[in-house]
Amino acid sequence: MKQALVFQSDFGLSDGAVSAMYGVALKVAQDLKIFDITHDIPPYNVWEASYRLVQTLGYWPEGTVFVSVVDPGVGSSRRSVVAKTKSGHLVVTPDNGTLTHVQAFYGIEAVRLLDETKNRLAGSELSYTFHGRDVYAYTGARLAAGLLAFESVGEALAPDSLVQLPMVPAQREGDIVSGTIDALDVRFGSLWSNIPYKLFEGLNIPYGGRVEVSIRNDTREVYRNTMTYARSFADVNVGEPLVYINSLLNVAVAINQGSFSRAYNIGTGLSWKIAIRRAPKIVYE
Length: 285
Description:
The protein folds into two domains: 5-161, Rossmann fold; 171-278, Beta Barrel (Elongation Factor Tu (Ef-tu), domain 3). 19% of the residues lie in helices and 32% in strands.
């Protein structure tokens, strides 16, 4: 049985790169079903590729083949791999940290080195800058079509040999939970933290309760305010900020019908830290 083939990249859709990947895959098997996560990952942003992959992977059927191409080191000595997750999915990608979140949240059962001399589009041997088309889309399509077995991709590698991006776990200290801002809900500008609901739940803050949110970029505090902990955006007035639990069951911060990230010029990554506690009571004398 043929499996779904799912692409993501930083190529954008302003030229023919993604279309070429589709074409290569369909030349392998014209009845393949091909889908996209996104092709709007910021150029060279491997962290974003890793996050978007884990955001999506678990909702696809077992056996789905993912091709992730954010590859600043294309044409260099960096490895190409196919990883088999413990959830039964395959990921074709450069070994540059793209598998960081998948390994942390789903686990990787086995890895094969993708032999680029054997697993590539015929006639592309002199092309060193478009492995997304020549190697990854081609190999992903053959895997999805059942024309290439995972075990035949190349030699086995130890999963713990994969390149890993640094991650800082969320933590609780007393009445404060803290973590990093891992990603944005891009279109709407909400901040998605790595603080899991289970950790936040320990603060015993009810829906409708007030929380204090502090955001730092490295050591500089860029935001501090109190807001409502809400089930959803409509629980507060338009233009008001809120804390909520996002679709990945992590703590997030938003403005109802506004962009929190644009309003306060807030970014993502390990330098962006967020801390949340129950809002202190104000005593009027």
